[in-house]
Amino acid sequence: MKLHKGLGRQIRIFSYSFVICLTCACDPDPKPGAGGVAEFESTPEKSAIAPGIIDEASGLAPSQNMDGFLWTIQDSGNPASLYLISKDGKSIKEFNVPGATNHDWEDVAIGPGPDSGIQYLYIGETGNNNQPVTSTNIVYRIPEITDQNGSFSAASLEKITFKYPDGPRDSEALMVDPGTKDIIIVSKEATETGIYRLPFPQSTSETITAEKVGTIPGVFIVTSGDISGDGSEILIRTYLAAYYWKRKDGETIGNALSRASDKQLSVALEPQGEAISFDRQASGFYTISEKSNASSVSLNYYKRK
Fold it and tell me: What φ, ψ does residue 8 adopt, rounded to 5°?
């Protein structure tokens, strides 16, 4: 989501920040979850990102086929491309996604899909704050390439078209449950953050209606989210904070997110924080920001204690 052009957008991000500061869940004591609540470093390891390539990063997902790399996307007005970033930030490579259109891409996730043994990238064409507001949204699904010399194929691209049961929504958080293969989308709201599910198998030929499965208490203006590779942990971020859930036995993603977060994580302030992701081994998590009015940004890594 672009907020750095024009006074109106600057006012809007200030308003979002004000809402978060007033209403976020700020319990300093973690609540016990099944297996215990994780602890992460509060000061990140920072890797500088050279400006000019991914100035509007809007999502992160760990590569499953290339260890030490992450995928990101850029939002509206940018190419329909996936970008592969090394964890030290020194290598950034662009891969076009043929057949896709970037109206307002907002998040990217990785996880299983229709074919067993294949990891898929899921691209959330779910932003909806630009005019005209769209009545339907899209999740693109495509198999992850296996190495840096690969390329994405239009023949392999799948388009999941959906609508919300309660009217159009602006959503910037997309996740995939590795256990059920359900797609989880979280709306960007100032008062009631909705949790929506596209159950597997998702149709690629018809418009499907998402199921609303709950709301997230005390968390507003959500800009990204992620589920760990084993499905046991969830991260949700806003512009100013990050929240952590440890799934209990038998909990769905919707059940987990419908209760108060187990912990609010300490994260460094970023120019316009739009992305969060566990690393491949869930040994920690990454964040990245849009550059906005800053001279540059960094890829930030918070190691698990």
Answer: -60, -40
Here the tokens at position 231 are: 């499905």
- Evaluate whether 157 touches 207 at the Cβ level (below 8 Å): no
Tokens of 228: 């760990």
Model pTM greater than 0.85? yes
- The model's pLDDT over 12-50, given as tens digits with 9 standing for 90+, comes to 444 444 444 443 444 434 433 345 789 999 999 999 999
CB proximity list for 105: less than 8 A, separation 6 or greater: 58, 59, 73, 74, 75, 76, 78, 80, 123, 124, 125, 127
Four-point Cα dihedral 141, 142, 143, 145, nearest 10: -140
pLDDT single digits (tens) 126-172: 999 877 789 999 999 999 999 999 999 999 999 999 999 999 999 99
Q: Which helix (H) or strand (E) holds 22?
A: helix 7-23
